[in-house]
Structure prediction request, 368 residues.
Amino acid sequence: MEKVRAAMIGVGNISGIYLKNIHERFTDIELVGVCDLVREKAENAKEKYPHLKIYDSMYDAFRDDTIDVILNITRPNDHYEVSMEALKHGKHVYSEKPLASTLDKGIELVKEAEKRNLYLGGAPDTFMGAGIQTCRKLIDEGTIGRVIGANAHMIGHGPESWHPDPEFFYKHGGGPIMDMGPYYITALVNLMGRVEEVCGMAKASFETRTITAKEHYGEEIEVEVPTYVDGTLRFESGAVAHMFATFDVYYPHAAMIEIYGSEGTLYVPDPNWFGGEIRLFDSNKEMKSIDMEFEFTDNSRGLGLWDMCACIREGASPRAGCQQTLHVLEVLRSFEKSAKSGGYVKIESPYERQKPMNKNAETEGRIL
Prediction:
């Protein structure tokens, strides 16, 4: 099988798991080289994986004729520039979430990819894991009857206590709804389908945040984005969901998705992960644990890239393609838009769920 050749732009906090999985699990991707504005980060990657080339700038990677795909794992507010320049140089792009920091920029990226007949995909790919895929199968089989609603929340007190460089979480393109919201909304649309409209309220509870992680201990961050976002989504099916995300609250159980059906309630695993506990509360008022039926229960980041690279080879539609990442971006940005306008926001982007995962994709070494 001919390998798809990739270059990684950005070698930050999340790069380690991408490097590990590409080299050890998704081996029909060949990672040729890496690039980071802080060269030391790229050198650290090369120290662990000596074959890697270090590009002096992202443009050197874009001009490398041997590269097929750019893996863009830069900071959220940089996603647009890196992805757009890669597309303009004729490269397929797989980007970390979100697709872009604004809806207009996301639309521009999709149009550019379509104009050049290039693939544009992106994280999160956690919905492709065993947890969400098993829940999708249960819903599609009618286990909880007709889906009538859902409730999702991500509650915590921000990343400044643990992240080595947390400032960007509170700047344009950051905040809980843009940072963690993609996991939840991506899971919800894969379980429930297209979102039709949203409404929301949003605020920043604190003007500044104090970093307590050791790397920048005591430094103050000025907050530029909402850190307390509460919204409602109406799906095309008629189902209604609630989404709450905050960096402002002390709370013991941070992650939750519940799907309500006419015949029962499904408790979905944390969408930030690939596996997790699944429970079903049925119409007999009995709580049952449900076994996961798919592979990828551990940290499988890079799974979406593997899928997209297989689609490049075979001319198929990726599960984590830009139709999905744009739809999710529009939903996320519409919460704040609704909060400012005080009314409902109609979602314009199309969305159709892609095919579910093969149960034995990793065992068989083939995802399509």
Q: What stands out?
A: The chain has two domains: 4-122, 129-290. The chain has a mean pLDDT of 96. Residues 257 and 351 are 21 Å apart (CA to CA).
